[in-house]
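Can't attach files on this board, so I'm pasting raw text. These are the components:
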Amino acid sequence: SYELSQPLSVSVALGQTARIPCGGNNIGSKNVHWYQQKPGQAPVLVIYRDSNRPSGIPERFSGSNSGNTATLTISRAQAGDEADYYCQVWDSSTVVFGGGTKLTVL
Amino acid sequence: EVQVVESGGGLVQPGGSLRLSCAASGFSFNSYDMNWVRQAPGKGLEWVSYISSSGGTIYYADSVKGRFTISRDNAKNSLYLQMNSLRAEDTAVYYCASLSFGELYFEYWGQGTLVTVSS
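---
Top answer:
Structure tokens for the assembled complex are below.
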């Protein structure tokens, strides 16, 4: 079965750029979607199909996908960006989520 | 306004059964593929099951295959999950989530309902 790997945690200084990787075998050939989840809340889509932002998501959020790694990039990180972030793909009629990355803004 | 509201969670003994419901409004429910996604306490997201807009196509995660049954009633704008032979590892918040129309990412999520399997 297909697997996605994410670091457990990423830290970023306030106002700096955070990069959250999502690794998978030839993930560049798949569409990757990213969700933000804050404590006690449902996930929220922040990037779809590798690099597209839904309406209402700040331009500070961007995504890329190539080879074996997809990356969520958060520019000018704010305290409100502290959350868990999950990547997601479809593979063989199943949904696969990464294990999630906790973003800490210092 | 889009609303997705899950219900039916609670405490159940191992081996028991529970039926979750999800009521949707504010979008054309009968046009959207629907899913159940769960999250064990302090853990990540785990996809559980998918059902197409017509109900004609259904998929399950291996971890629940043969024990859980997804269904929908488009006339009632409702999604269901019948859970049998429950195990401790099924303890989680269960989210009802729609795929975006014609897409493979989740657009609308409910706030979840907690299922606790314990004796």
